[in-house]
Description:
mainly alpha; two-stranded antiparallel ribbon; elongated
Amino acid sequence: MISAPHPIRLLITNQYQFLSSMLNRFPSLLNNWIDQQEKEVNGLANIESKGDFEVYSSIYHSEISRVDSCYDEMQLFYQALLIMVYSYYESILSRIAKEETVKERPNCIAHKYGIELNGEYSKISEYIHHTILPLRNQLCHNNNGTLFARNKDEQELHNIKILVSRHDIEIEGGKIYIKRPQFIQDILDKEYKMLLKLADICCYNTKYI
């Protein structure tokens, strides 16, 4: 007997695992890079200083500044990953909607099968659409400090301010900064749960041949 996972269900799981892996591996990759830079700088300073501590200290502190941009690079990575995480949800939701010939909303897909998404799933759908989508839109607009100028939906702005109060993000000069990387994983987990629920509703199950 051979198992044949439904292609959409397989896509949901594979992309979820890939994005989770990217998020989990980044800190160790960055730390390894920083460690390598420190070793190179230490070696250079030792060679050039020839035992003179003051010269060593001057060279070391001058050269180690190459890692000063790490915070900016971390922000760029996490902002890009948040955009990718939302795109994961949006693209698969669109594919399911196309397959089912309905509008690209979870409720529309569920209604086709006479099912009402309520409770936790209703909250996930609202959270993604009215909190994460406007956040993603701001980042896609180059995070240019126009969040409150472009978005006139008071409820969505309130939702984003809640993220600030929870220290998931920070807003300075209208620009958004990711403060808690686990926040991105939390979004991804919610999306994954919703997409699997829709796959179950649409009977996108593994077949055994």
